């Protein structure tokens, strides 16, 4: 079933793009998420595990591997269930126009997110991790003519993709230490390498979940249409980092830095995000900064790692997805019906948009952690987890969670009061309601109440999911009423009261700040692009000889990491005296290639080098390799002779500087190859017998080299052939284009030199 649902998303993308009419785009797109949500809902609380695996390179442990247990089912319900509502909301939000591309991209993102939360292999996880970054870039940049949206999309892509590269480095180290790429087979690891992996993986998670100092991309992403914000920035993409931290907890939780770094960054982000939410006047930006803050709380709880904290983190993931999607949808409806999201100018909406008002009230109360909403027991669990921590660190965590929660109540209160208050004068003009844009937010806000009433059932779904990450989470529950003797309850009431007072006062004042962090990131990106253009102009300016020099120099630098592995004991004069004579011939021919002025003479001398190398292979006892080398050299020499027919007979004269550069490059490349060979030499038995047996048994041939090239490494060879074919087609196209213009276009000096 896993494969069917994932493929259904891909088929859905093609189907939406192929629709003859754009009208049913969102209806067609929601079919795959609906099927996924229904199937995942049937798995909630069920202990059975569903797996799917498609091997790619078994020897390297590369495969597409998926595992759906209690956690995967719960996350799939959030991803696909809210996704269905987003497609309905999108139909009402846009109202008309051709949105096939948008719907298809949103569906591709939904499928990518589903693959991410179901991944049971680090490479599968990374593949879908990057897919979410690319599709989110396309969604944020939907308004391609809006420079603000384009800049925001670029910023989000660079931050998340850079984090993805760091994550990849961490996963490589992790696999090396753990000995497997399968997540469900990994056990706890410690040590220096584990610490490196932990730090790199946490950084990758921080970039995706908008933690300090990588949070700047998320507020800017509000330039995207509201369906994107309601989906990516509430229930899905921003939760990927939280999920990653949770999935890695059983493996890296014992590493000393794991908990400390995650909790510290999470609490700082919670505080800073709340401050940002209190300062902005754009309702959507308030929600965005609030999301940054709440992601900080989830990061802190998931990183804390205790059974109660993991349980609280999973509960917060569920509650936040429900109330934040509803809030974004309501603000989006206000935007399309009034043309504004400015808290300072909107007035009288409580009367003119009563449904949106009550959606904001109920969803806001859930975000503030007020009963009877689902957010209350989830926030209670976080406070209890903080109370359970002992020592000075436990006190700091409790203080951090408390202050962050007070500010959460404050910006929620400010948002609702400022958005729906009467500010004097005429009320804001409102267009008629679009029920497809209203119904999803109503349903989600109602789910907040239903989730509180049915807290025992929600517990039955959350506990198995949390226990997947930490077995001690199995002993906890979401409590509708913790009792008057509960310390956490009284802390919660104090939080609500204090936050309401601060929020009421803040609602009367608003001074939107400059996005300093985002501006600095944009400037850094601009400077990087300017540097890239400058560098490209210096090294990619049409000179083939310079291209070759640059490539040779860069390739030579690749040997530096291996210099410490050079084994001079493997170096000796020769195995047979005949090798000395043939080696001398090869060296002499190579020198001749460099000094002969005649093109045809140099080509023939180069052929002598190839023949000499073939003879060396033959002397060493490798006739198959010698035969292959001989055939290749013959083809190359013939090709040279044919190609040289269109050029002058002599090489152009070169000055001292250019000749010195080429000689230096050649010497450096030769030294690099020598060092690489010495570093790779091992005084261990050869696996020639095993390869020979594989050539006969698996490849059906006695020529070992040819069997390796055409059978054992067939895909590699095919790729190389494809590259050569594409290059040949490019050369042919350029030649024909040049012939068509009659050679009238001016040529660079470098090209003239090559042609002479």
Compact summary:
This protein has 756 residues and is mainly α.
Account of the protein in words:
It is a single chain. The chain is mainly alpha-helical. Among the domains are: 253 residues, no CATH class; 130 residues, Four Helix Bundle (Hemerythrin (Met), subunit A), CATH 1.20.120. Helix content is 71%, strand content 2%. It contains 31 helices and 2 strands. The chain has a two-stranded antiparallel ribbon. Strand 1 and strand 2 form a beta hairpin. Helix 4 runs antiparallel to helix 5, helix 4 runs antiparallel to helix 10 and helix 12 packs parallel to helix 18. The radius of gyration is 32 Å and the shape is elongated. The C terminus is likely disordered.
List keywords for this structure.
Four Helix Bundle (Hemerythrin (Met), subunit A); two-stranded antiparallel sheet; elongated; 756 residues; mainly alpha
End-to-end separation? 64 Å
Annotation, overall tally of beta strands: 2
Q: Approximately how much beta-strand content do the residues carry?
A: under 5%
Q: Please bin the fraction of helical residues.
A: over 70%
What do the pLDDT scores average to? 86
Strand order of the largest sheet: 1-2
Q: In one word, what is the shape? A: elongated
Poorly predicted tracts of residues: 750-756
Gyration radius, rounded: 32 Å
Summarize the main sheet: 2 strands, antiparallel
Structural class: mainly alpha
């Amino acid at each position: 079933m896993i494969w069917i649902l994932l493929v259904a998303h891909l088929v859905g993308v093609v189907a939406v793009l192929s629709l003859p009419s754009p009208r049913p785009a969102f209806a067609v797109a929601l079919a795959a998420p609906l099927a996924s949500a229904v199937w995942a809902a049937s798995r909630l609380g069920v202990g059975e595990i569903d797996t799917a695996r498609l091997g790619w390179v078994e020897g390297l442990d590369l495969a597409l591997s998926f595992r759906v247990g209690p956690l995967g089912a719960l996350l799939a319900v959030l991803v696909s269930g809210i996704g269905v509502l987003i497609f309905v909301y999108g139909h009402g939000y846009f109202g008309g126009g051709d949105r096939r591309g948008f719907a298809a991209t949103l569906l591709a993102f939904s499928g990518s997110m589903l693959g991410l939360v179901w991944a049971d292999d680090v490479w599968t996880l990374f593949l879908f991790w990057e897919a979410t970054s690319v599709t989110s870039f396309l969604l944020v940049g939907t308004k391609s003519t809006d420079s603000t949206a384009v800049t925001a999309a670029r910023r989000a892509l660079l931050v998340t993709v850079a984090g993805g590269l760091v994550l990849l480095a961490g996963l490589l180290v992790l696999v090396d230490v753990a000995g497997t790429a399968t997540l469900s087979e990994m056990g706890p690891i410690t040590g220096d390498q584990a610490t490196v992996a932990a730090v790199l993986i946490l950084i990758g998670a921080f970039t995706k979940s908008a933690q300090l100092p990588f949070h700047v991309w998320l507020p800017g992403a509000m330039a995207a249409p509201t369906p994107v914000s309601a989906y990516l920035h509430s229930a899905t993409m921003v939760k990927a980092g939280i999920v990653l931290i949770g999935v890695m907890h059983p493996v890296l939780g014992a590493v000393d830095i794991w908990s400390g770094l995650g909790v510290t960054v999470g609490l700082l982000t919670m505080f800073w995000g709340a401050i940002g939410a209190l300062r902005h006047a754009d309702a959507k930006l308030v929600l965005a900064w609030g999301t940054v803050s709440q992601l900080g709380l989830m990061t802190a709880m998931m990183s804390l790692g205790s059974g109660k904290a993991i349980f609280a983190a999973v509960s917060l993931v569920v509650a936040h997805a429900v109330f934040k999607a509803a809030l974004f949808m309501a603000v989006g409806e206000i935007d399309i019906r009034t043309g504004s999201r400015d808290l300072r100018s909107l007035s009288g909406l409580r009367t003119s948009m009563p449904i949106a008002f009550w959606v904001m009230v109920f969803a806001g109360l859930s975000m503030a952690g007020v009963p009877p909403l689902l957010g209350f027991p989830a926030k209670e669990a976080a406070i209890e987890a903080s109370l359970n921590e002992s020592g000075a660190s436990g006190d700091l965590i409790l203080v951090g969670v408390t202050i962050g929660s007070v500010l959460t109540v404050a910006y929620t209160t400010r948002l609702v009061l400022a958005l729906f208050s009467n500010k004097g004068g005429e009320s804001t003009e409102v267009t008629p309601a679009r029920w497809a844009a209203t119904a999803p937010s109503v349903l989600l806000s109602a789910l907040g109440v239903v989730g509180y009433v049915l807290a025992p059932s929600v517990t039955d779904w959350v506990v198995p999911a949390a226990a997947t990450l930490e077995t001690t989470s199995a002993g906890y529950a979401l409590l509708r009423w913790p009792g008057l003797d509960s310390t956490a309850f009284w802390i919660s009431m104090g939080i609500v009261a204090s936050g309401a007072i601060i929020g009421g006062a803040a609602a009367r004042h608003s001074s939107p700040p400059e996005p300093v962090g985002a501006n600095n990131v944009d400037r850094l990106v601009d400077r990087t692009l300017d540097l890239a253009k400058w560098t490209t102009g210096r090294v990619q300016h049409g000179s083939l000889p310079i291209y070759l020099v640059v490539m040779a120099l860069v390739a030579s630098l690749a040997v530096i990491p291996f210099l410490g592995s050079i084994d001079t004991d493997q170096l000796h004069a020769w195995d047979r005296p005949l090798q000395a004579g043939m080696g001398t011939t090869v060296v002499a021919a190579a020198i001749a290639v460099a000094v002969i002025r005649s093109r045809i003479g140099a080509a023939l001398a180069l052929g002598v080098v190839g023949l000499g190398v073939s003879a060396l292979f033959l002397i060493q006892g490798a006739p198959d390799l010698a035969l292959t080398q001989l055939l290749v050299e013959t083809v190359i020499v013939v090709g040279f002779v044919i190609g040289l027919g269109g050029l002058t007979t002599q090489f152009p004269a070169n000055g001292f500087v250019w000749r010195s550069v080429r000689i230096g490059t050649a010497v450096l490349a030769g030294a690099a190859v020598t060092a690489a060979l010495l570093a790779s030499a091992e005084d261990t038995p050869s696996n020639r017998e095993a390869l020979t047996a594989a050539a006969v048994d698996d490849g059906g041939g006695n020529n070992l080299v040819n069997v390796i090239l055409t059978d054992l490494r067939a895909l590699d060879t095919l790729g190389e052939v494809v590259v050569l074919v594409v290059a040949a087609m490019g050369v042919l196209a350029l030649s024909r284009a040049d012939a068509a213009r009659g050679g009238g276009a001016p040529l660079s000096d470098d090209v003239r030199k090559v042609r002479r």
